[in-house]
Design goal:
The protein is α/β, with parallel strands linked by helices. It has helices spanning 18-29, 41-50, 64-78, 101-126, 150-170, 188-195, 200-208, 219-229, and strands at 9-13, 33-38, 54-58, 83-86, 132-137, 175-182, 241-244. Strands 3-2-1-4-5-6-7 form a 7-stranded parallel beta sheet, with helices on both faces. The longest helix is centred in the middle third of the chain and has 26 residues, at 101-126. It is globular. The chain starts with 8 loop residues before the first strand and ends in a 25-residue tail after the last strand.
């Protein structure tokens, strides 16, 4: 590792699993202090024990007071704040007519409103830094609809627009804000989604046939791109989306034929 985040402090939501956990591990390996924020405290505590400079902060990001407290706790513990990564997210798999109002509100609060809370309460701390960084997690669902995930898709479309607004409004304080939009990624959320289908393995295989690379991404694939956006290696990039989807959105129709070289690890080719 190159210690690109030496002396930086990152606040990461959804850190107990999936992309958030991968971001935490990568950022810590790059020298960052990492505040790990998640509603699931047990895996959060375990992760904090594995990382050199980590603080576990159990919190529900849909509740403003808990987001504010987690940010204040981060700065109190590490002395500064430079990076926000909003990875927390949930999905419901059902058509709109089966939704309850509390379910809709909960999903929007976790996936979207939490981002509002994070910038609102991080602002006084980021203001002290000459450069700061924010990355929000969208989805291929930011750009195209997916069956039976209407609230999720709506929330991820809104994440990109909120990202753009933040980039415009806070460029004056040296904040760059971007949105990362993953495709099919092997996370607990994907596995939950697949388990709602009659044949999860067949459903995943069918979806991957529509991906030119033919493989699911890993959380670390996403984390490496988030790292890039949180350093001056990406200077000048703000208010935009980075699609990481194995080529999924590149074509209206696609069948990869069942085999690509991406299915073999790079170190074996």
């Amino acid at each position: 590792m190159s210690n690109r985040l030496q002396n930086k402090t990152a606040w990461i939501t959804g850190a107990a699993s999936g992309m958030g956990q991968a971001v935490a591990k990568l950022f810590a390996a790059e020298g960052a202090n990492v505040a790990l924020v998640d509603i699931n405290s047990a895996p959060l505590d375990q992760l904090a024990k594995e990382l050199p400079c980590a603080l576990a902060i159990p919190a529900d990001v849909s509740i403003e007071s808990q987001v504010r407290q987690s940010l204040d706790q981060t700065v109190s513990h590490f002395g500064s704040l430079h990076i926000l990564v909003n990875c927390a997210g949930i999905v419901h798999v059902k058509p709109l007519h089966e939704y309850s109002e509390p379910e809709w509100d909960q999903l929007m609060a976790v996936n979207l409103k939490s981002i509002f809370f994070s910038i609102k309460h991080a602002y006084p701390h980021l203001l002290k830094q000459p450069r700061s960084y924010m990355v929000n997690i969208g989805s291929v669902g930011t750009f195209v609809a997916q069956p039976d995930t209407p609230a999720y898709t709506a929330s991820k479309g809104a994440v990109l627009q909120l990202t753009r607004s933040i980039a415009l409004d806070y460029a004056s304080i040296g904040l760059r804000c971007n949105c990362v939009c993953p495709g099919i990624t092997d996370t607990p959320m994907l596995r939950y989604h697949m388990r709602t289908l009659p044949d999860p393995d067949a459903a995943l295989a069918q979806r991957l046939r529509r991906v030119p690379m033919g493989i699911p991404l890993t959380p670390m694939d996403i984390a490496r791109n988030i790292l890039h956006l949180c350093t001056e290696d990406s200077a000048g990039v703000t208010g935009t989306s980075l699609i990481i989807d194995g080529g999924y959105l590149a074509a209206a129709e696609w069948d990869n034929g069942g085999a690509t070289r991406f299915m073999t690890p790079a170190d074996e080719t």
